[in-house]
Each structure stands twice: as C-alpha cells, then as structure tokens.
Amino acid sequence: MVGLSVGEQHFVKGGIAQDLRTDGRKRLAYRPIYVETGVIPQANGSARVKIGGTDVIASVKAEIGRPSSLQPDKGKVAVFIDCSPTAEPTFGGRGGEELSSELALALQRCLLGGKSGAGAGINLSSLLIKEGKVCWDLYIDGLVISSDGNLLDALGAAIKAALTNTAIPKVNVSAEVADDEQPEIDISDEEYLQFDTSSVPVIVTLTKVGAHYIVDATAEEESQMSSAVSISVNRVGHICGLTKRGGSGLDPSVILDMISVAKHVTEALMSKLDSEISAAEACEDES
Amino acid sequence: MEVDREDGRTPNQLRPLACSRNILHRPHGSASWSQGDTKVLAAVYGPKAGTKKNENAEKACFEVIWKPKTGQIGKVEKEYEMILKRTIQSICVLTVNPNTTTSVIIQVVHDDGSLLPCAINAACAALVDAGIPMKHLAVAICCCLADNGYVVLDPNKLEEKKMTALAYLVFPNTTLSVLPEGSSVAEGEPVEHGIITSVTHGVMSVDDYFLCVENGRAATASLSAFFRKNFQQSQRDSSKAG
Amino acid sequence: MSTEVSTSPTSLIGQTVVPGDVVLDLSNMTNQTIKLGSGLRQDNDAISAMRAGKFRFSKPNKYWVESSHKRYIPRPEDTVLGIVVDSKSDNFWVDIKGPQLALLPVLAFEGGTRRNIPKFEVGTLLYVRVVKTNTGMNPEVSCTDASGKAAGFGPLKDGFMFETSTGLSRMLLSSPTCPVLEALGKKLSFETAFGLNGRVWVHAASPRVVIIVANALMNSETLSGTQQRIMVEKLLEKISE
Amino acid sequence: MAAKPGAATPTYSPKLVGRSRLPVFKDSDLDWSRPDGRGFHQCRPALLQTGAVSSASGSAYAEFGNTKVIVSVFGPRESKKAMTYSDVGRLNCNVSYTTFASPTLGQGTDHKEYSSMLHKALEGVIMMETFPKTTVDVFALVLESGGSDLSVVISCASLALADAGIMMYDLITAVSVSCIGKSLMIDPVIEEEGCEDGSFMMTCMPSRYEITQLTVTGEWTTPNINEAMQLCLDACSKLGEIMRDCLKQAASPSDE
Amino acid sequence: MGLPDSSQVLSTEMEVDAFRRIFPLRFFERHLSESLRPDARPLGKARDTIVNLGLVSTADGSALAKIGSTTMLAAIRMEVMTPSADSPDEGSIALEFHMPPICSPTVRPGRPADAAPVISKRLSDTILSSGMIDLKELCLVSGKAAWMGYLDIYCLDADGALFDAALLAAVAAFSNLQIPVVALNDNGRIVAITGGKDQDNASIIEKKAVNKEKRKLTLNNIPFSLTCILHKNYILADPTTEEETIMDTLVTVVLDSSDHMVSFYKSGGTVLASSSAIKSCVELARTRAKELKQILGEMDID
C-alpha cells in the first residue's frame, strides 16, 4: 500500500475536510473516465476502463453449458477477477488472491440480484436456450492492470461496458428429444443477439476519511479511510447491492445518508457512462 | 491334522521366510522381507534433525510412508501407517536421539495375505540395518480362526478371505539373556509374552482370541531365530576382515 | 559362531547379538567399574543391546556392540571428515553425516584468534575431531587435538572423497594396519584420511592411483585379510597390463 | 473381509429436491404466513450456550430454529511459522458445514465466502493490540443449516470470543432480513431465503449503536432499506440482551 | 521421568497446577498409587455417558453421544443406489468420521487430523464385521435398487476415547434410523412418499410402496467398545485426552451384545499387554457393555 508520512496524511485529511482534495477535486467529483470497447477480439465482449490512474479490463465469454438442476430455467454467470502484479508488486503469486475474491464476490452481489432474480443486472432467464438442457454460461473476467484506488467502481463500469459490447450467437435447438438425451444444437455464425444492459447497475463507493466521505478515492486517500461503503444503483434508482469494507463501525444514520448521496451521484455517473460507452461503441464500429 | 491347507502346510507352519538387508544404496537402512509370495521392501532414512509440529521434540520421532503396489493411498493404508508408526515407536529407544525424525518407507511388492505383519517385520529389519537404537525387535504374525475353531498361522490371501476372523499380533522377539532364567517375569508370565500390537477383524469369542494369542506366541520363537540367523550371516560377511 | 539359540548362555562376548539381548548382568559384577560403548543401554541391573552386531569386550572393562552403518552417531574424540555447509560469524556449520549438523567454532584452530579467522567456502572438506555431543544440542567439532595443536586436522585440499559405511572406516583405521592398505602401500604412494563417520579421502599424484586405491578400499568391506591381499594384487595386475 | 463397493457407486436421494420449492408468494395474498408460523417481524427463539467444547479456549453453541452452529475459539496462540513479526494480533476464521447440514448440499465443505465475511465482521471489534505476535483462531461448524446461517455464526462467534476472554470493544450481533415482494421478514428460514427478492444482513455493536458490516443484495427501494435497517437494529439490541444474559449466567455459578 | 528426585523436592512447595504441568507423569502416578484419578474417578470407571436421539432434522437418523466431555454427532442419510452385480440384494453403508477444527486445538483447517481416517476405517470395519446390520434389509428391488446409508460422524469435542464415543453415536444413530417410505416410479427411479400433503401423488403411489414394513433396521449383536490405558500395572478405563497424551499404551476392546469379541485393538505403546492385562481389559469392557446397553435401552422407549 501507499506509505504516507504523517505530514502527507494530515494534508490529505485536511484537504478532504475543506472539500478540496489533493488533485483539486471536490469530495463528490469523479476523475475523468475513459472507456474503450472491443479490446479483446477473441472474447464475445470486452471493455477497458480508465479512471485516473486506475486501469481495468473486463471481458465476457459465453459458452454453451447445462443449467444446474436446482435452477433448470436459468443460465449461469460467473465472475472472476485477477489482480495483475503490474498493478502492485504484492499481487504476484498468491498475494492478490484475497483482494481478487473479495472484489469478485462484491461484483457478483451487485450484478446477480436476489435468489429469485429480482434486481439482477443480467437477466439469467434470457441466457436459457432449452429448459433443463442447454443454456449459456457467461464467464466475466476482470483484470486489474493498474491500481490507483476505487477498483470496484472501475470494474463495475468495465463489466457494464463489456456487456453492452457483447454479442451472443443465435442458437437453434433441434426438435424434441427423449428425456435423458442432450438435444443437438446449431450455433449460428451470422445472427447475433445483443444484451439488454439498461438494467445493469453502476457501483459507487463512498470512502469515509475523517468525518467526511468522498467518491472515487485514490490509493492515497484509501490508505487513510476508516471504512468504505459500495452501493450499486440501477437506472430506476433502486439499490441492487451494498457492501461495507473496513473494520470501524458506522452510525446507522450515516449509512442512510450515504445511500441517499450515492443515489444522487449515480444519476450523473450513469449518464456519463452511457455516453462514454456509446461513443466507444461507435468508435469501434468505425474502425 | 484336522485342517487342510491348500498349500499342504500344517496349521502352525509358516510360509518360507526370506530377508535380505542393505539392498538399496541411498537409504541409510533397507530390507526386503517375504513370507511366501507376500513381499515388502522397507527403507529407513535418518535420523534427520528436527521434528514435525505436534510431535514431542524431546523424543525421537518416526514417520511411516506406505506405498501400495498400485493405486493411491486410502484409509487402509493410513491405518497401516499409523499402526506401523506406533509399533516402531514402542520398540525403539526414543531418548537417544531427541528432536530427530526417522522416516520409514514401506513399498508393497506383492500382497498374498498377512501383509501388515510382513511389513512390520520388514520395517524392523530395515531399522536394524540402519542402526536405529532399539529396545528389542518386533516379530509380527497373522493368526486366522477357521470355521471349525482351529487356528491357522500366516494365511495367504485365499485363506484370509475364507476365515471367520483373524488377528494380526506383534510380539517382542525371543532374546538371549545372561540373566538367570525367570528373572524377567511379570505377573506370572515372561515379559516377552506381552503383546505390542493387536489388530483383529471379524467376530470371535474371547477364548478364541486367547487361542490365537497362544498360537501366535509359539511362532515367535522361530521368527526370532530367523532374524538372529539373518543378522549373523550378514555380520559374518562384513566383519571377517577385521 | 552359529550357536543355537539357548535361553541362558553364560557369556555373549564375541557373539552376534540383536536388540533386546541382555548381555551383562550387573548384579553379578557389583564391585567392578565398567565402560559401556555404543549400542548398549542400561536398564536397572541388566545391560542390553540396542543394535545388532558383534558384542565386544576389551580389557580391562570396555564393552560395546560392533556394527556397520551408513549413518554416523557422533561420539566425543572420534575423528571424522566433515563438509562445510554454511558459515556464520561464530561458527561453521559442518555436515558429519550425523542426525544434526555439527558446529565448528571459528576459533577452534591452532592459534586461532579473532584476527585470523579462516575462510572456508561451502563444500570444503575438513578433517576434524568431535569435542562435545550433548543431547539436545548440535555436536561440536574442532580442528585441534586435545592439547590445541593442529595435529593434521584442518581442510583437505585436492584429492577424492567417497562415502562408505562406518564399519569399513573403522576397519581401515584399526591397528595393526589393515591388509588392504598394507598391500596397496607397498606398490603405490598415496595419502589418505579416514573419518569414523564413513567418509574416506584419498590423494595421490596421479588420478589413476586415486581411482585404484578408492576402488580397492570400497571392495574390501566384505573381504577377509587374505582375500583383500589377493584382490589388491589382481587389481594392480590388471592396471599394469 | 466384507469389502464394500465404496463410495464410487452413484447414488441419489429419493426426496425430490428441485421441485419442493415454496409456492411463490404473491403480493396480493396478504394472509399467507411464514413456514414456521411466525410474524414477519418476529425472530426465531434463540438458544445460546457458552462452553460447548471443553478443549477450546472458548466456545458457544447457538440454535435459532433449525439453524444449529458451534463456534470454538482457540488461542491466543503461536502464529504459524511462516508469518512474520506483527505487533498486533492476528485473527483466523473458518466456517465449515457438516455433510448433513442441508438437505440439498452434497458434501460438507469449507465455506470460503462465509469465512472471509466472518473475519470482516469480527476484526473491527476485537482489540488486536492486546495479543501481539499471536493468533486467535475462530472456527465455526454449521451442524444444521436452517436459514440466516451467517448471522447466527457471527453472533455465536462473538459469544465464543467473550467466553474465551478475548478483549473486545463490544459484542457483535448479526441479523438478516429477507425481502419477498413488498414484505420484509426478519431472520428468514432456508425456504424463505430460497425465493427471496433481496437479502439484507447487518452486524452491529449493540451497546455502541454502530454498524460494523452491511451487505445488501437484490433490489431494494430506499424506504425498504430504512425499514430493514430499523428492524435489524431493534433485533440486534434484543439479541445483544440475550447474549449478555447468557454470558452472565455462565459467569454466575463461579461467583457463588 | 528423569528427575524423580527433584520433582519430589519441588512438589512440597509447588502449586498443584504447576506440578501437573511440569511433572505430568509424576502427578498421575501419585494419583494412581491411591487408585484414584484427577477427576475423582476410580481407575476402572468410565465417565458419565449421555445419548440423545434424533437431533438433526435433515437426516433420516441421528444421535448425539457424550462420554464425559467427548461429544460425537452421528447422522445417517439414506440414498438409493444400484447394487453391485455380485451382491444384488444387499445395500451398503458408507461411513465417514470427521474431526472438524472446532473439536481440538491440534486440528487446523485445511489439514485433516491424522487420526480421522484411521478411526473412520476402524469404525466401518467394526460395524460391518460385527454383523449388527443385515445388509439384505437395505435391499429395495433386488438387483435394481438398494439403500446406501451415508453415516457421517462429527467429533464436536475431543477429550479422549474418541473411538468409543464415535461407535456409540453410530450405533445410536442406527437405532434412531427411520427409513423413508418409497415407491418405484415409471422411470425406474425410487421416489419418496411425502406424507399426506401431496394428495395427487399419494393415491397413485399408495399401492406401490416398496418398503412399507421395513421402516426400521433390526440391530443384532450391537458392538460396544471400551478403551483402556495400560500404565505399569495399572489399567485406566475411558481415558481423557490428558491421560492419553501422558500414558501412551491404549487398548480398545469391542464386545457385542452376545459377549463375542469384535475387535481387540492395540497399536504399539510402551507397555506390553500380558495375558492377565488382556483379561482385565475384557472384563472391564464387559461391564461397560452392560452399562451402555442400559443407556441405549432407555433411549429406545419410543
């Protein structure tokens, strides 16, 4: 992590208290966001998101699979995150594993919704090809290339962009077969289906430093945090997921306050992301 | 004889024994031991410095690794490892080399019944070969109880399957002693008649168990003599020159 | 030699014993002081063997079990060949084939002071004397004799080292000179060092001689005196052809 | 000997697992009741007991309806050799399930996700600086899973820590709420969890009135969140009282 | 061991707890010479034993056995399998003994205890060879379907005599076992008949129920076990963990209800078992078996 001297620590904290952070931002201002889609041609969809010094790539790969016996009417989605040693030398070997699984878990919570499927960013039923027999398995891989704080928000945005970029081939299933046989499938290489990503939520992390909280914290600022709350909000303003990090406790009213601030921030962030993504998509189409 | 054995042995007759020591170059001690077609190789490394966690560092520790003829090790092998380890620990002098670990590796070459006793005998020979300080030797024998109540020693695999019950018994070897006869007696019987290890399979009456113990004990004399002869031979080989 | 197992022999001296055999009964020898060597342990009045080997007695009062092993258990005053495996500010760590590494204090050299600490690379072969073997501690070795003189101890340069059993090295060190050495010594000129831990070092002007000597020594373990002489003669004949 | 075919033979349970789900609750029928007959805002009766495992430094057993959990605390004891020096203590958590914990789950396994969540819930409340260089191990075994497993494990763990005499700022209590349709139900059972639209789990320090952990999944409106939080806070403080009583009871016989 | 004299001198002025830690063996031998153990038991007496049945609602049969502090939870789940060709009308039992990290300070997560697979093997050997269960009773449709009983035993608290407690829990779990009523459906699979709730199903299946009478297993020759410690000439029944670590010679005798020997297990240990010691152990086990039989009998009232 970032090693700061006592003087620097005071400077960071003091700046936040006065609503002027070290890089000149206000407490609730984001760093510039840069989105690029289609960065990995082999994947069904991919995107790269840079927020300041944080740089992540997300890719979506779709494979034909079998629905689980517990949920025969749904496809499956798995999220994996890899923290590359290029971001932080300590991520080498097994060092990044803990952070990776923590991020993957938080993203899974935000994207997949409740057990019944309510609030899911990805409609699992739309991944079904034939009940109990064939479905799409979606593998979402996130890669952290460079880390300067706020990884969860960046990954969330990258996955949203990658899903928008995703095209899944159309599949035709042969007619009825016996109960215990696998039907034949025919994957079309011309027709593609696009995902409806309007319901994919965006994630906002509010980091508490001193008595105030900030969005889009840099690594320096994160090192001074007492706790952080990540909230994912969808287009209609419903909360789809929430996780808290950091050991210290928070007063219930503070959390409620954070939630309402987060909702406010996401509105701006959502439209910003939307325009960035469509610009990136357009850019890719041209090239 | 009342019991007919497939290979024409009498009930108390063991299969031919064979043992050769110092057969492997790398280990500090090694031996191969066979009883009929059952054959086991044992290798000893150590003592090496240090003990594992959870082990008593004030004593010498042993670890046993069982390599089956084929396949992976399962629960049976784990149980054998534990029995061998505890048996070895009870016959070795643990206070001479404190805070050391000695590894015993058992490789099954062929299993035709009485595998565990065979492995214990092989391990014992290998430990002697490595010069590990021991209180005494251990001789192991398998006793089988046939349907008609007779006890059969050192069964092969076929006999093991047919038996109602069997007992693997380990005794101390018959030793030479300059002490006057009868001086090492505890509660009316010589100390060396005590059982080091006993593992049984199948249901039998308590009296039948004692019958097994008695028959098994009788066989230890010939096994002990075989051990002694084997050591004398190799001793002759190596120390003639001196 | 191949005495039948009888339950109560009168004396086992010179015989092969196996672990557990009771070799001495102290209750019969109350007014004697005896010294017990390796392979024996005391259990009240009974002295029993804990290794297999030949039970030996040497006048006036030493008893031990003679056996040959690949592993060495250090005993004070043994001379052994060690290999340096690490060097620290106060000690060298030396492998002497025992359960633990041995410590060689950097001052344990003739006239050793803080100013003239020798430098040994890892892998250096040393001829050393075992000083202390306390249980629970690493054994300590020294490059001086009891009076503090070098007396031939120290690093062995050049030459060839090979590992044998403790029995063979004891045989080679025995007096009168072992027949195989005698026979070789008549025809060839070479230098040797035997460690009781089963390591043997041979040095000669030409590698040829080193190889001949090393082979002859390794072959001699299981041979009688006469056999050894014949073996050496045959070997030398073959080489000179 | 009677050699068994072993576990290699494939087997199946005659009980139909997949289809025995609860009928989905409609918003319209308001008169349906919860599987165990509780009110929506009523917790299951909690049975708590300390000192369940004699060989541990501290332990506790918790039974909330069908959810049965044992937590053992070992230490503070020597850290693993590979660990470097640290002037604060370490906390090591592990949650595992028995093979028969739930009717659906095949085999008992370590639950990595719960292990790390238990760790996060506890680390803020333990005074780590009181046991430098050493580790406190908190191991939980879910004997039977009957819903709200993680919150029961967390509450039980804090009780076990108190039983072990590990210094803490406060007890930790954890409560979950499920959202099905428009209704919120506290302390859900496993059937309710299976068809919930959203889940909400909160751990808090009842005396300090602070939230240490909060996880929300599914879709929630702000008023729902407010309500759930209030429900949890109330339940937490009640649970805190029960835990306090349990500890007092355990301590009182020794005073006499 | 090596310092009997110093311990003697020190013991007069040392606190009992300190003496117990520093000279554990002396501490115990002092007790043994008075024929008493530190927990106030006579040498041959086992600790208080409690058995509770049917605690796990997700299992078909379960039991909790407690011997002193040693606690075992056993649960059986019944599943259906196709029997092997050489025994078409026999079911099967798969037994697993677990030592989760909660039970003892020596077990760490990720590294299973060495003792667990060994006890597991001994338990399944004992139960299968004792003939307590007739595997033929587990048959449903000859050659087609039979029960596979998954018996899992969890050690919740390890304080010595693990095998005894585990065996007791296993036996009690079998006595608690309620085999579900099942029927053969059209696809050749066995399905459970779930009470009266599913009305539409029940009427069809009523006539086809395969195992109406076979809801419980008949248990003959129930095995009971007692572990003893041999130390010098003393025999201590039902040892605690502390006693097991200080004195290392353990003997486990398993007798069945008709007084036959199912197992005599001793692996190593410094003390050799003489014939008289074996006889005493068997005698102690006999008394213990009667005690346990009574405890189990009280349970079986339902």
Automatic annotation (TrEMBL), chain A:
Keyword line: Cytoplasm, Exosome
InterPro entries: ExoRNase_PH_dom1, ExoRNase_PH_dom2, ExoRNase_PH_dom2_sf, Exosome_comp_Rrp42_subfam, PNPase/RNase_PH_dom_sf, Ribosomal_Su5_D2-typ_SF
Location, primary (coarse class): cytoplasm
Gene Ontology CC entries for this record: cytoplasmic exosome (RNase complex); nuclear exosome (RNase complex); nucleolus
GO molecular function: mRNA 3'-UTR AU-rich region binding
GO biological process, one term: exonucleolytic trimming to generate mature 3'-end of 5.8S rRNA from tricistronic rRNA transcript (SSU-rRNA, 5.8S rRNA, LSU-rRNA)
Signal peptide: none
Compartments where found: Cytoplasm; Nucleus, Nucleolus
Residue ranges occupied by any Exoribonuclease phosphorolytic domain in the UniProt entry: 30-169, 200-263
Classification via CDD domains: RNase_PH_RRP42 (cd11367)
UniProt family annotation: Belongs to the RNase PH family.
Name recorded for this polypeptide: Ribosomal RNA-processing protein 42
Annotated source species: Capsella rubella
From TrEMBL, chain B:
SUPFAM superfamilies: Ribonuclease PH domain 2-like (SSF55666), Ribosomal protein S5 domain 2-like (SSF54211)
Organism: Capsella rubella
Domain of life: Eukaryota
Gene Ontology CC entries for this record: cytoplasmic exosome (RNase complex); nuclear exosome (RNase complex); nucleolus
Location of the protein in the cell: Nucleus, Nucleolus
UniProt GO MF annotations: exonuclease activity; RNA binding
Protein name listed in UniProt: Exosome complex exonuclease RRP46 homolog
Subcellular location, principal: nucleus
UniProtKB/TrEMBL annotation, chain D:
Protein's UniProt keywords contain RNA-binding: yes
Residue runs in coiled coils: none
Gene Ontology biological process terms from the UniProt entry: nuclear mRNA surveillance; poly(A)-dependent snoRNA 3'-end processing; rRNA catabolic process; rRNA processing; U4 snRNA 3'-end processing
Residues covered by the Exoribonuclease phosphorolytic domain: 42-166, 170-231
GO MF annotations in UniProt: RNA binding
Assigned GO CC terms: cytoplasmic exosome (RNase complex); nuclear exosome (RNase complex); nucleolus
Listed Pfam families: RNase_PH (PF01138), RNase_PH_C (PF03725)
Keyword terms: Cytoplasm, Exosome, Nucleus, RNA-binding, rRNA processing
PANTHER family recorded: EXOSOME COMPLEX COMPONENT, EXOSOME COMPLEX COMPONENT MTR3
Protein name in the entry: Uncharacterized protein
Protein's organism: Capsella rubella
Organism phylogeny: Eukaryota, Viridiplantae, Streptophyta, Embryophyta, Tracheophyta
From TrEMBL, chain E:
Record's keyword annotation contains RNA-binding: yes
InterPro entries reported for this sequence: ExoRNase_PH_dom1, ExoRNase_PH_dom2, ExoRNase_PH_dom2_sf, Exosome_comp_Rrp42_subfam, PNPase/RNase_PH_dom_sf, Ribosomal_Su5_D2-typ_SF, Rrp43
GO molecular function annotations of the record: mRNA 3'-UTR AU-rich region binding
The protein's name in its UniProt record: Ribosomal RNA-processing protein 43
Listed CDD domains: RNase_PH_RRP43
GO biological process: exonucleolytic trimming to generate mature 3'-end of 5.8S rRNA from tricistronic rRNA transcript (SSU-rRNA, 5.8S rRNA, LSU-rRNA); nuclear mRNA surveillance; nuclear polyadenylation-dependent rRNA catabolic process; rRNA catabolic process; TRAMP-dependent tRNA surveillance pathway; U1 snRNA 3'-end processing; U4 snRNA 3'-end processing; U5 snRNA 3'-end processing
Record keywords: Cytoplasm, Exosome, Nucleus, RNA-binding, rRNA processing
One GO location term (cellular component): nucleolus
Domain Exoribonuclease phosphorolytic residue range list: 46-180, 222-287
Annotated family: Belongs to the RNase PH family.
Keyword Nucleus part of the UniProt annotation: yes
Annotated localization: Cytoplasm; Nucleus, Nucleolus
